[in-house]
Amino acid sequence: MLEGLIVVVLVLGALALWWLLRRGASPQQPAAAARRSAAPPRQAAQAPATAPPAPVRSDEALAEDGRLARHEALAAERRQALLEALRQMPRPPRALHQLVSPEFVARASSSELAELVMTEPVVAARVMAAVNSPLYGLRTAVTSVGQAITFLGLNTVRNLCLQHLLREAMPAPDPALRQEFDILWRSSAIAGEMSLVLAKRLQLRDAAGMSTKLVLHFLGRFAAVTLLHTQADATAQPIGLQARALAEQQRLGVSAGEIGSLLLQDWGLPVPMEAATREIARIAFVVPTDPERAPAQATRMALAALCASLAERIARGQLTTLQDYAPEQDPHEDLQALRPHLPAPVLAAVGDALREPEMARLLA
Length: 364
What we know:
Helix content is 65%, strand content 0%.
């Protein structure tokens, strides 16, 4: 009996001890649970940190990097806003589409061109006035578009028509822009003629097509100048091909070459014409791997860009003579960018052609 009583006492003591231990530990359990829940899981704490996503580069950042953005890369809202601004400009006459179509450029006869010009009386009158101006030095007055083609050639008259059709579509919106527009019109006229002379000397195929694309290339310049003028902080643009394109991109989102491409797309002009207008602008930013083996297309675009640069320098009075001009020695920044695309034989032929008496009238 004594042994049974001892067993009961031991059992009761064990129960009492268990109850006391449980009661003393219970207040601490919530705190411990809270600490466990607050602590990060061991696996998450040991996982390697992932790199943050690369920031999306803005159009302005592209300009800082010295690269040109394409208008297709603009944010949808910004591209649409730019397109809406361009649509405030008058649309060109229908004749422009036919005049720049690759088929017409390649195969149109003198009579077909004359017939097309006569559908636009204002343009026809301006072409006749230009043909009879001192610039061309004709001894006999020209009284018809057909005669103009006979005296000046089909390609020259086509370029005159193209320039005046574009002039109808791009009137100076503000008197303050008239002087700049006049400079650009003279530049496009000189560049178109210069490209025809160089293409003939270098025996390039499709001289008419290249000249037409070069004249269209200036359309982006007109549009960019107009858009920049609407900005309250409008300032004079740099003259160099690269510096100006980057400045335009910094302020408008894209350069004039891209603006011209977007405008021509919206007008529904042929893709080959639209694409070339911006490639002329972009060639100054391309670094060739082997200048002596430059692709023929790159050489053509570089020649077009060279004509655009020289023509504008002539129109602005910065280049007053070509008599001793040597493109291989010209320190101008545009030549620094374009020379790598022009193999030495091409560059030498360009210099010879520019020094010929035929080019002197471009400086008249």
